[in-house]
Amino acid sequence: xxxxxxxxxxxxxxSSYYQTSAALPLTNPSNYTAKFIAYYLxxxxxxxxxxxxxxxxxxxxxxxxxxxxxxxxxxxxRMPSSLGFYDLSNINTIRKQVELAKRGGIYGFCIHDYWFxxxxxxxxxxxxxxxxxxxxxxxxxxxxxxxxxxxxDGLESDILLQQNYSSKSDIAYGQYLLDLTKDRxxxxxxxxxxxxxxxxxxxPDASATFERWRDIFRLAGEPEPFLVxxxxxxxxxxxKFGMDAAAGFPPHTSGEIVRNDATxxxxxxPTFQGQARSYQTMINNEINGRPNDxxxxxxxxxxxxxxxxxxxxxxxYYGSTPGLYANWLNNAARYxxxxxxxxxxxxxxxxxxxxxxxxxxxxxxxxxxxxxxETRHVLDSLSSSxxxxxxxxxxxxxxxxxxxxxxxxxxxxxxxxxxxxxxxNRMLNERRLNAMWANSEYNSH
Length: 445
Prior knowledge:
The protein is an alpha/beta fold and 445 residues long.
């Protein structure tokens, strides 16, 4: 257990990139040359549904705290620092998040919105922001229009909350959007409120749904929504659904085609069934895959690893550093600036607080404020024509994260040996049980 413990200890202590809050400017940006919009997860407050399905008191932190490293250099668990294991039903928590986000160069949050034919869940953070105008943060919403299932248990067919689509439901949600987007803080593109729909392909007739929404806005004398979809689940071009733009949502698309190097790394868990992919390769794929025939607001992520949600079978992207992330963000921002439309100079960041997927800008015990300070540094550098230089460089911290073909041979053989041992042990136990049954008084005739 020494080696896994050492990796665990390394993950919860400061790295060579660690930065304190002093790395952030005390003042907010005076202008936003590009708009960095961070996806925002609201699942950090208790609710009755999660209590019923996962146990009383469940929040995203329940998964985060129990994650374990599966290979050398695997950054798990991921522990928050200055904000702690917060509760998003507490308005002071949201105020602190907003303060840090703005100092870090974040223009606004894209808040995941969970609406099931009129039933809302995890709605408290949106309600708190909506009802408190002094919380000075721009925001928009992403309708997460998919069923809730026991995905974390691998039971995708076990539906917990189901989406039911109808024209009546379209109208109800359109009215909800109309009311929400009247907020002066709501993010707009060329005067139109930005509304994201996570999976338009699941709608029976996406174009008809969106036309109903447009009618509601037009009748109210309001600008039509600017409809955006994340590039995910094989859907890249928003025009297919009658939408205005696509948004990057890595590791979807750019990260999914990266080779799995798990067996070529130094495994701490010989039973590990997950994937480990190159962060740098994901960056290269995203940059090289941008279109020239439709509008894309590119997306970046500081890291990604869902081991906390899928223990022993998660997917992680190794090799992330604050410097690599900063260079990627800078490249994405300048890509949008090249279009000479400042209102559409938008980059999406996955994410502000997806701790269960290892994708967050909030400070942690390992890197502190390093990723957030790089975000602000990129924003402040965009007005300069000088070559961009990240604050922390781009070196890879751990040599253990270099794939090795010899390790692959060893790991594959070890896994096969382990699996054969399990089969042999299972067979042995079955024989013992059969023998006990044969000699049992309950088997007498």
